[in-house]
Amino acid sequence: MADAPRDPTHRQDEREAIRARVLEGIPHGFLTGPGGTGEPDPANIAPGAGLALVKQVHSARVVTVEEPCAPDARPEADALVTATPGLVLGVVTADCAPVLFADRAAGVVGAAHAGWRGAHHGVLEATVEAMEQLGARRSSIVAAIGPTIAQASYEVGQDFIDQFAAPQHRFFVPADAAGKWRFDLPGYVGWRLESLGLAATEDLALDTYADPVRFHSYRRATHRREASDGRQYSLIALSA
């Protein structure tokens, strides 16, 4: 897995847009939460584009989209794929892992919301399969893991680790408190992506919990008894 990128970032819709090296040349951005309100302007990612979002439900469900999704008609899913130029796909997160995909040669992109449930039940694999149905080849697909909660910030109980098979327990380390563990969500997501035989995978290695200046974190807000409705958007599109 590649090291975290150090490429310059810039402002989009008053939110910082973080880029991934593996997606260079593909319109995309992992937007920070603070600095903007409401849904982002898709034109900041792809001029003249419409925005496609879904109603996220922590599932492995993927939809193929060809046009913008109206706010009152968004399907329940946790990933989107498209081969339609000028359409911006987006997912929202606040600790879960946003993953953006692209096959430049085939002209197919995807976006997935990979919380532990979605990742555990196959949302990443389902996204790649949906891209293949549009003509992508997994050996040509690249994927970038955006800002997500890091292992040092993600304490869980024994009942959580019991839901994973023994070989996957390597993504857990003991926490300070007895009976508690720390889960490596980005490591787990990266492992599942690498198991798919993709062309390249990149982890931006940005911890949402530890960076309140740039990122919303549901867990941090809950611990601090603050409002927990903040989110950040991750967007990707094909050039028109």
Report on this model:
The chain is an alpha+beta fold. It has a single domain, classed as CNF1/YfiH-like putative cysteine hydrolases. It is built from 5 helices and 15 strands. It has helices at residues 116-121, 123-133, 158-161, 185-194, 218-224; strands at residues 10-12, 15-18, 28-31, 50-52, 62-64, 79-82, 87-93, 97-103, 108-114, 142-145, 155-157, 172-174, 180-183, 200-203, 232-236. The strands form 3 sheets. It has a 6-stranded mixed sheet, with no helix packed on it. It has a 6-stranded mixed sheet with strand order 5-6-9-8-10-14. The longest helix is centred in the middle third of the chain and has 11 residues, at 123-133. The protein starts with 9 loop residues before the first strand and ends with a strand. Belongs to the purine nucleoside phosphorylase YfiH/LACC1 family. Pfam families: Cu-oxidase_4. GO terms for molecular function: copper ion binding; hydrolase activity; S-methyl-5-thioadenosine phosphorylase activity. InterPro entries: Cu_polyphenol_OxRdtase, Cu_polyphenol_OxRdtase_sf, Cytotoxic_necrot_fac-like_cat. This is Purine nucleoside phosphorylase.
Outline the biggest β-sheet: 6 strands, mixed
Number of helices: 5
Order of helices and strands: EEEEEEEEEHHEEHEEHEHE
Rg, Cα atoms, Å: 17 Å
Helix content: 10-25%
CATH architecture: 4-Layer Sandwich
- According to DSSP, the number of beta strands is 15
Across the major sheet, the strand order is 1-2-3-15-7-4
**Overall morphology:** globular
Q: Could you say how many structural domains there are in total?
A: 1
* CATH third-level topology: CNF1/YfiH-like putative cysteine hydrolases
Spans with pLDDT under 50 lasting ≥5 residues? 1-12
Query: What is the CATH first-level class name?
Result: Alpha Beta
What structural class do the secondary elements suggest?
A: alpha+beta
Look at the structure and name the CATH superfamily. Answer: CNF1/YfiH-like putative cysteine hydrolases
**Amino- and carboxy-terminal Cα gap:** 30 Å
In terms of DSSP E residues, the strand content is: 25-35%
Overall residue-averaged pLDDT value = 91
